[in-house]
Design brief:
Shape of chain C: globular
Strand content of chain C: under 5%
Number of strands of chain A: 14
Shape of chain A: globular
CATH class of the largest domain in chain A: Alpha Beta
Chains: A alpha/beta, B mainly alpha, C mainly alpha
Number of helices of chain C: 12
CATH architecture of the largest domain in chain C: Orthogonal Bundle
Largest sheet of chain C: none
Helix content of chain C: over 70%
CATH architecture of the largest domain in chain A: 3-Layer(aba) Sandwich
Oligomer: heterotrimer
Order of helices and strands of chain C: HHHHHHHHHHHH
CATH superfamily of the largest domain in chain A: Periplasmic binding protein-like II
Strand order of the largest sheet of chain A: 2-1-3-13-6-14
Radius of gyration of chain A: 25 Å
Distance between the termini of chain C: 41 Å
CATH class of the largest domain in chain C: Mainly Alpha
Number of domains of chain C: 2
Structural class of chain A: alpha/beta
Distance between the termini of chain A: 74 Å
CATH superfamily of the largest domain in chain C: MetI-like
CATH topology of the largest domain in chain C: MetI-like fold
Chain lengths: 414, 294, 283
């Protein structure tokens, strides 16, 4: 009995080895994980799941795409945590504000170095949009879509209050005061909705009032985030909050789309996706759009948009194919139908996009500014929210809170 | 009587082994790691390489204004919800022990909130308490006890009180069932003796019932205190810490520090502070109940 | 005599009124949830708000969406898998531990038991940071298997504590008789202790099922893929999206999630009470 054991074991080991090597030799379909923050019940997500991914998988039979949706803030956190747990996705759709931070952690692939046909692919996309992916002279992503925010106003509410669409910040303040109050049911109504107090929300006001966040080199915040113009912008905003003209950032508030759709918020600053969302949830509400009112700094909105980036642990070949597909004319045209402004030059020329009237957004993009492109932005953004909260609740004066914020930011920017 | 052969010993060890393994790997090891991590400087980019940093995380915690806010929040949550649940749970148990019909129906219905998951219960409460929600409408337009919508969720104490109301609402049933069982263990003779001594209903409760269920009270007190410090999901769902971390509790703040900012060392130190606080509270509660015994 | 009966009647009345009021407070939020899940999303901000939906506006469209457009079945299956595995593993492990700790008292076992009890002071979520690191090292991130061992570890102390109390009450004579017959430890455990302790194990298991079924923080931290999410994360995900919340979907999914739990609870409520009280009353 004993004598047989070794040969049997050896035979079994050989068998195992063969099985294993067979499994490897056969080209297993590669699954790439794609993380994004298209919201789960949105038109974008339906397009992604029902149009784009099936089309991509049909074109590339060896590749499967596992799309995972996260909430915006959660996606950022999940990427950071996953970087340490070897659970990074292959590809992710990233807010342009996150790239410097991800790059600094060393989890992004420098595409211009690794992909031989990079120049050809990126040549199909707008240079201005591709510039959001450059860090230290290298490209770490492909531009996926661009956007900015403009004013959406409820036509009926403005008419009822006898208010013209505000063109300057002074008119804006006045309009908000007139629009706020009570409706026929005795319910409170607000002139303006602002769903959060982060950089994405506050920056347009700071910039339009002529204020700024940092110096041009993004190395110092003192003298910029607490400059007289910034303080004035924030004070004006806080005063309107305290007068009951602005709301939306509180936990108990009516969500933005619902409040706008049911005539409780007269105006809001939102991106191109809002039209599709309103058409789906509140098709009856009549609204118009306008650029953000101009102040001393002009009419300056915030530059938004997403890039599609590859992580260092990715199946690079398949991931690159998927990234090319997502930025192709076909995919960008499909996404344009649900409010994502393309950055693919050919898609921008297509009839769908021309018909979709992105003109006001594209005009806003031309004067919009980007949030600071520094690795510490997420932390700075959180500090800004805390400071703004203290200001609008009257806990601190704008000057006090912004002075403190400037000191905090100076350290983070070093 | 118990046999002591080697086979028996081996079999005993075999029965203990799986439990010990799971316990050692998933409970004891994390506790030890927690302590070590609290002494390290960790960030997202260096989670797995951990330079020793001494007590700097602890120093940072005690200098952090937000820590004191969330510490007070957790304390307040515990100090209010624990007695709230116990008193109301005991009251229901006493009421329930004195009726004959429908007692099972009442018990089952009152226990429903306990089996409802935290995620669901929190969302329901958020929906009811939102500024435009049903409760405000009811208070203002139907009962007329308020003259405007109360902004329950928008302030520190508003948001916390909704979480506390939820905590009490969800916990009463558990207290009720446990106290109900304890009440049935109290000897009937004692009540009769007290009656002969001229005790009224209230006197009987104070002199017979309460001493009779003292052990249960201690058990419930410690369990609920642990639960109070463990509050997480309701805060995350109801306010998400808004405004600006003012409604965060120890756990939600710890979670934010770890998984949103990558300060794992700080988070570990915070967990350790929390565990020590709980241990201290448990000892104090134990002592108090003991000394009353003597 | 008559007065005594009258006052007793009044006492009973007061009891029923108070209990009825309490029951209303406990059940109304749940009824409101069900009622909201039955109306179209557009009706959520109607004025005045109503507790009961208008009959003509009643709709099952939210349920239709959850059952046909979302990954509800997958999430449900994941939750069942995780909960059942947790229950089975915890029952096996904890009952074996309880048997040894309860029936073979020695300095070692007493010390071990005390140690297990002391760790109960630290709630599971407190250790989420080192546990996440451990999950990372064991490659358990984004896997259902990453949930189960942690849940088992969380419920074992309490389960052991409860089952041990029950084991101790098994009369010594029964076991002594078995020893005389020359039975082995394993045989006594499987043939005598386990059957006799089964009510305690059952009630502990219901408790553990609930714990695993509703667990949120850990699952939300470890699981990424939509198809691997358990029900609580799926519900929270529905809620967290974007600037408007489709409460109808959220609550329809919540109702569907609650149904099995409520069924189990009502069917097993006797075990439930026994189990809860066995551990506490002795205390």
């Amino acid at each position: 009995m004993r004598t047989y054991r070794k040969p049997v074991a050896a035979f079994l080991a050989c068998l195992m080895l063969m099985l294993c090597s067979c499994a490897f030799a056969e080209s297993e379909p590669v699954t790439i994980n794609f993380w994004h923050h298209y919201s789960a019940q949105s038109a974008e997500n339906e397009t992604l799941m029902n149009v784009l991914i099936p089309a991509f998988e049909a074109e590339n039979p060896g590749i499967r795409v596992n799309a995972v949706s996260h909430e915006w803030a959660e996606l950022h956190d999940k990427v950071l945590v996953s970087a340490n747990s070897n659970a990074l996705p292959d590809v992710a759709r990233c807010d342009i504000a996150w790239l410097p931070e991800f790059q600094k952690m060393g989890i992004l692939v420098a595409l211009d170095e690794e992909m031989p046909d990079f120049a050809q692919v990126s040549g199909q996309l707008l240079d201005s949009a591709m510039s959001t992916a450059v860090i230290g002279g290298h490209y770490y992503a492909l531009a996926l879509n661009t956007n900015s925010k403009i004013v959406f106003y409820n036509t009926a509410m403005l008419e009822a209050a006898g208010v013209a669409v505000p063109e300057t910040m002074d008119e804006w303040c006045e309009a908000l005061r007139k629009l706020s109050g009570e409706n026929a049911n005795g319910q409170q109504i607000w002139g303006w909705n602002e769903p959060a107090l982060a950089g994405w929300n506050i920056c347009p006001f700071i910039w339009s009032f002529g204020g700024s966040l940092t110096n041009a080199e993004q190395t110092v915040a003192s003298g910029y985030i607490n400059s007289p113009a910034t303080v004035r912008a924030v004070e004006t905003f806080a005063a309107l909050v305290q007068e009951g003209c602005i709301t939306g950032f509180n936990a108990g508030d009516i969500p933005m789309t619902d409040g706008f759709g049911t005539g409780r918020y007269a105006m809001m600053l939102e991106g191109p996706w809002k039209s599709a969302e309103l058409a789906g949830a509140y098709p009856d509400v009549a609204y118009g759009t306008a650029p953000i009112p101009a102040g001393e700094g002009g009419s300056v909105s915030v530059l938004g948009g997403e890039d599609i980036a590859m992580f260092s642990t990715a199946h690079k070949e398949a991931a690159w194919k998927f990234m090319q597909f997502m930025t192709s004319e076909f995919a960008e045209t499909e996404m344009a139908k649900c409010g994502q402004i393309p950055v693919n030059k050919a898609a921008l020329e297509s009839d769908t996009v021309k018909g979709a009237d992105y003109a006001p957004f594209i005009a806003a993009i031309e004067t919009a500014k980007a949030r600071p492109t520094v690795a510490a932005w997420s932390e700075m953004d959180n500090d800004l929210t805390v400071a703004m909260t203290a200001i609008v609740t009257g806990e601190k004066t704008a000057q006090e809170a912004l002075d403190e914020l400037a000191a905090q930011w100076d350290i983070l920017l070093k | 009587m118990i046999p002591k052969s080697r086979v028996h010993r081996a079999q005993l060890a075999l029965l203990l082994l799986p439990g010990l393994l799971v316990f050692a790997l998933f409970t004891v090891y994390p506790i030890l790691r927690l302590f070590w991590m609290s002494l390290c400087d960790m960030s997202f980019s260096s989670m797995l390489s951990q330079p020793f940093a001494g007590l700097s995380n602890y120093r940072e915690i005690f200098q952090d204004q937000t820590f004191w806010i969330v510490f007070v929040n957790s304390m307040a949550y515990t100090l209010i919800t624990v007695p709230g649940q116990m008193v109301l749970g005991l009251l229901l148990a006493v009421l329930l022990s004195g009726i004959r019909r429908f007692s099972v129906t009442f018990r089952v219905l009152n226990y429903m909130p306990v089996v409802t998951s935290w995620v669901i219960a929190s969302l329901v409460f958020r929906y009811i308490f939102n500024t435009e929600g049903l409760l405000n409408y009811f208070l203002w337009k139907v009962l007329g006890v308020t003259s405007s919508n109360i902004r329950w969720l928008d302030s520190r104490w508003g948001g916390l009180s909704v979480a506390m109301i939820l905590g009490v609402w969800k916990g009463i049933g558990w207290n009720m069932v446990i106290f109900l069982a304890a009440l049935q263990q109290v000897s009937k003779d004692l009540y009769e003796a007290a009656e002969i001594d001229g005790c009224g209903g209230w006197g009987k409760f104070l002199h017979v019932t309460l001493p009779g269920i003292r052990g249960t009270i201690l058990f419930v007190l410690i369990e609920l205190t642990i639960g109070g410090f463990n509050v997480f999901t309701s805060i995350k769902m109801i306010t998400g810490g808004r405004p600006a971390h003012q409604t965060d509790t120890l756990l939600t703040w710890m979670y934010y520090k770890a998984f949103s900012t990558g300060k794992f060392g700080y988070a570990a130190a915070l967990s350790f502070v929390m565990a020590l606080t709980l241990a201290l509270l448990a000892i104090v509660q134990f002592r108090m109940m003991r000394s009353r015994d003597a | 005599m008559k007065r005594l009966r009258l006052s007793r009647l009044r006492g009973a009345l007061v009891r029923y009124v108070l209990l009825g009021a309490a029951t209303a407070v406990f059940t109304l939020p749940m009824l409101y949830m069900i009622s909201t899940s039955l109306r179209p999303n557009g009706a959520l901000y109607e004025y005045p708000p109503r507790f009961f939906p208008r009959i003509e506006a009643l709709t099952l469209e939210n349920y239709d969406y959850i059952l046909h457009q979302s990954k509800f079945y997958l999430n449900f299956l994941n939750s069942v898998l995780v909960s059942v595995s947790t229950v089975a593993l915890a029952a096996a492990i904890a009952s074996a531990m309880a048997f040894v700790l309860g029936k073979f008292p020695s300095r070692g076992t007493r010390l071990l038991f005390a140690f297990i009890i002391v760790t109960m002071i630290i709630p599971g979520t407190t250790m989420i940071v080192p546990q996440f690191e451990l999950a990372t090292r064991l490659s358990l991130v984004n896997r259902l298997w990453g949930l189960i061992p942690f849940y088992v570890a969380w419920v074992i102390p309490f389960s052991t504590f409860m089952i041990k109390g029950f084991m101790e009450n098994i009369p010594g004579e029964i076991m002594d008789a078995a020893w005389m017959d020359g039975a082995s430890v394993l045989k006594v455990y499987f043939r005598i202790a386990l059957p006799l302790a089964s009510p305690a194990i059952a009630s502990v298991s219901i408790f553990n099922f609930l714990t695993a079924w509703e667990e949120y923080p850990w699952a939300n931290t470890v699981i990424n893929d939509n198809s691997r999410r358990t029900l609580p994360i799926a519900i929270a995900g529905f809620f967290g999206q974007h600037q408007f919340t489709q409460w109808g979907y959220v609550f329809a999914m919540s109702v569907l999630t609650l149904i099995p739990v409520v069924l189990i609870f009502i069917l097993c409520q006797r075990f439930f009470v026994q189990g809860l009280t066995a551990g506490s009353v002795k205390g």
